[in-house]
Amino acid sequence: MPKADPSMLIDLHTHSSVSDGTQTPTQLMRAAVAAELDVVALTDHDSTAGWQEAMTAASGTGVLLIPGIELSTRIQYASVHVLGYLFDPLDAEIVAETARIRDGRLHRAERIVERLAVDYDLTWDDVLAQSSMGATIGRPHIADALVARGHVPNRSAAFASMLHWRTGYVEPHYAPSPRDGIRMIAEAGGVPVLAHPATHGRSSVVAESHLRELIDVGLAGLEIGHRENTEAGRAQLRRYAEKYDLIVTGSSDYHGDGKPNRLAENSTAPDQLERILTLGSGSEPFQG
Ligand code: AMP
Ligand code: ZN
Ligand code: FE
Ligand code: FE
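A: This is the predicted complex of the input protein with adenosine monophosphate.
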């Protein structure tokens, strides 16, 4: 197992064009080197398809690559993202469930585009033109298509208008419960960490009784360092982490040019990475 040095720069949440990042896994690894990262995790939404390319690109760079995912889960209308590290990518349940989520996302995106097409000049081909083959499709690809058609200036503007819930074009997609998502990552030898759990303020941070249920099925950590977590929410999360001895991470949630988030704008302490490396048994980190 690679040893974590106290001066290491560690970013455990990034997206490539395998989901809704704007850079290929190869370009993302180059960006990680340019940002002087020692450790980077590739965590595409609902897909492990970028792992191989990222490993090839990491070779010879000295960067330690942690294979990961950001799994979509949902309770009613509330979307809950679960980061998973070092799980077995061939685990039957993970393979089946991520395929089901990606399929649900695809059909949901087609329906969103059908609704948008009533009011805007936009086709499904426009969306395909903005996504790479086999990518996990999401609202960002629709946003890029709206930008390409000149309806909005950038992704964020699309999210603030047509792709916002209140305008009625958007609908949720299939996703398992947080409990099932966390359980399946843990059962596949992985380390499940709740992604940005305080984006909607302290009142929306997971209730303690629910958190305990999630810990019971294997939740190992909380992503507290994330630009969208509120201050009050972070304070609550720190209390939880202390009380339940959870791993604490901080990461960028880098999407290339798709979001303002920059690599290493938040980072994870080496001792916390050490805990992830010790717990994860379903796949190996790759020392590039
Ligand atoms: P979806 O998964 O289809 O519901 O879309 C949500 C994804 O869009 C998340 O991964 C976000 O990172 C991304 N996203 C959300 N808001 C924005 C924004 N303002 N600009 C760019 N990307 C965004
Ligand atoms: Zn994303
Ligand atoms: Fe997320
Ligand atoms: Fe993310």
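The chain has a mean pLDDT of 96. The longest strand covers residues 64-75.
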